[in-house]
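[INFO] parsing input record for allantoinase
[DEBUG] input buffer:
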Amino acid sequence: MESGKRGLLTLLPLLLSFLFYFDFSKKLPSSDCSLLPHNHYWIASKHVVTPNGTISGAVEIKQGRIISIVAEENWHVNSWFTTVVNYGEAVIMPGFIDVHAHLDDPGRTEWEGFPSGTKAAAAGGVTTLIDMPLNSAPSTVSEEALKLKVQAAEGRVYVDVGFWGGLVPENAENVTSLERLLDAGVLGLKSFMVPSGINDFPMTTSAHIKEALPTLARYRRPLLVHAEVLLDHDGKLEPEDGADNARSYSTYLKTRPASMEEAAINQLITLTKETRAGGSAEGAHLHIVHLSDARTSLNLIKEAKQRGDSITVETCPHYLAFAAEDIPDGDTRFKCAPPIRDAANKEKLWDALLEGDIDMLSSDHSPAVPEMKLLDEGDFLKAWGGISSLQFVLPATWTYGRKYGITFEQLASWWSEKPAKLAGLTTKGAIAIGNQADIVVWEPDVEFDLDNGYPVHIKHPSISAYMGSRLAGKVLATFVRGNLVYKEGNHASLACALPILHR
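[DEBUG] output buffer:
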């Protein structure tokens, strides 16, 4: 009898462990959606980046949410009774939120597409993308076009994807059309002050933007602006000394001088004064995308902020990583708009980012089929512009930022916290209790070569300006809403992330 009791006591921990693992009232995540099929687990590390600083400790996740964060000295978990994944010295931080990506789906999936783009995002530690309204077909400038976009995303995204709508002359001048687009769930709007290169996404003037601001104010959603305007020339410059001149990056650079950004931002800050308290557009917010001019343009934005205007600005890793002087002749992988400027300007961008004058970072992932980059011709004037970078923004920011002493907390601010605020994602952007468990785990000291042997998930690796680089910062794991969607080169079998609509 006594031996029977002892046997039962021996089995009791195993029985309790079984009951803990199998909460019969709640279905476990499908193993097809997550590489860690548990609905309740802990992840631990010596470096957990929280809004209150980096701690050594653990994060408890249940049903896709963060339910507790515990410092190491206060953490007493019995691994018999729950799953613990200990990442040692690796960094656990909020997943990156990329507010500026072109996934080209539907309509131009040969350029990228939701499956390949979101796989690349997951492999790079990006847990949420906000998709731009152009380069897909049709452009997202109406309620009907947004519905097509959402349908294309459902069941095909490995990270969460929200959507910006497009502000174009047609809906800027039609309040009802604009309201229908906002009511359908776009997180905000995007406009171009120069020709976009896409026929169904025409440019807007400052008059169109002024017309739309009161509507955006009522909806409390931002307007993102590509801030360049054409000056005396038409944005093109013919070669001066024969066809080979078009292979020089300096030739392209002359076609888009910093004065184009300056002139656009000058126009915009005549409007942003209305976003101040008591203004006619109080509640509206302007956000300048992919700033490349760190001189006069940036000073205009700083002055507007000091006056109380509701305005923010982003730049991109390629403006922080590369300099015009170093771009080889004919290497059209580096063509983008606004262009990459000189090394002195790059240093000023870093200064502005570190001092808080630039608010956040984005990828401006803008792919195309390789033929459009004219890699063989190397013609900077005719090649399609755009930097393909989505999978590399974490290691690129870290690699080029280390010499400036950037911190994990700064990365979290630039890539998670502030992007979440811009997009209105109130339960994302920080490792905080109650937030969705959107998390990246990465190793800052591990270096790797972006060569043909490296697993790249963007559709056309050959067009990326980062290929051939040596970077530091290897992503080990990416969690989206608690699902482990990426782990050391492998993705979950199914795309179970969600489209995000403003409700």
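[INFO] Residues 68 and 346 are 40 Å apart (CA to CA).
[INFO] shutting down worker
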